[in-house]
Amino acid sequence: MPKPSSAHGKQRRPHALGLAKFADAKTSTYDKQARKQKERALNSKVVNKYRKLRARLDGQAGGPHAVQSAPQAQPDTADVEEGLAGSPSEDAMTGSVSGTHGKQRHKKPESHIQRIAREKAAEKAAEQRAREEAKQEAQHRQAQRQQSAQQRKKQSALMRKKTRSGQPVMKFRINKILGQLQGDA
Predict the structure, then answer these.
(1) Among 1, 73, 77, 139, which residue is least crowded by beta carbons within 10 Å?
(2) What are the DSSP calls for 71-97, one per residue?
């Protein structure tokens, strides 16, 4: 279907663009450097936040704002039944629900930081165990090396022995060959 024509039967075509309009049309408002700089700033913000969290978790052992990763001890069941445990201030601090009717306390769900701290502690313990195992293996290998070195030194000393006339003592050489044959069989 043909396009509708204008009132005079001719389609209006735009005239040639001026030089200023042409130059403005070619320039882009997209600035790659500015976009990359903004992206770096956002990424560095996330990285800095992560580093602060890791530093806080690494140094939490002695700090005043340390997060407790170990679960808190529950009071004896006899205290709960008697209604002596769980003063109102303690309940408000721990977020627990207690009463004199023998209801059990509900644990407050573990926060994100506590979960990360627990995982970090488990990771450190696993690394420590791996280090200890590697150290023991290295010590064992070193002891074996020393033992084999002593045996080689002893064997070579026996092989170097000579008679009065300067001939090698054949007894030790024959014993070595005999031991090798018996080891192979």
Answers:
(1) 1
(2) PPPPPPHHHHHHT-S--HHHHHHHT--
